[in-house]
Amino acid sequence: EQEQATGIQQTDAIAEAEKILSDARAEAEQIVASAQAQKESAPADDGEEMVYIRLFKDNDKYKDDVFVAVNGERVQIRRGEKVQIKRKFADVLEQSLAQDTSTANLIERESTEYEAKAAALQI
Question: Which of 60, 53, 59, 58 lies closest to 96 in space, CA to CA?
């Protein structure tokens, strides 16, 4: 009797698991179909659109031209002049700036934490 009850519970668990998997597959198919529809209706952004930028220039660290490459395509950007470049290159410069800012913030945060710990330990 107990074996029969255990067998029924296992059958119920298997059926429930199969239903969960079936529902998950159906939901995944809907998500993929929705993403495909959005991709097809969205305008193509291949980064080829031309944009204007001006890179900071000084007579010290920021005086040289900037070299940027995206998927084998290269461009050299003059500092201190308003230039027109493809958006994909401008995006790389923007991402680089964001990463530099994030790194500077991390260094500042870790330095402050280190100084506080050193002061607490009287080092």
Answer: 53
pLDDT in tens, 83-119: 999 999 999 999 999 999 999 999 999 999 999 999 9
pLDDT tens per residue, range 44-61: 678 899 999 999 999 898
pTM: 0.57
- DSSP symbols for 59-103: SSTT-S-EEEEETTEEEEE-TTSEEEEEHHHHHHHHHHHHHHHHH
102 close to 64: Cβ distance less than 8 angstroms: no
Contact of 82 with 53, CB cutoff 8 Å = yes
Q: Are 62 and 93 in contact (CB under 8 A)?
A: no
* Alpha-carbon span 13 to 19, nearest angstrom: 10
Distance CA 23, CA 120 (A): 56
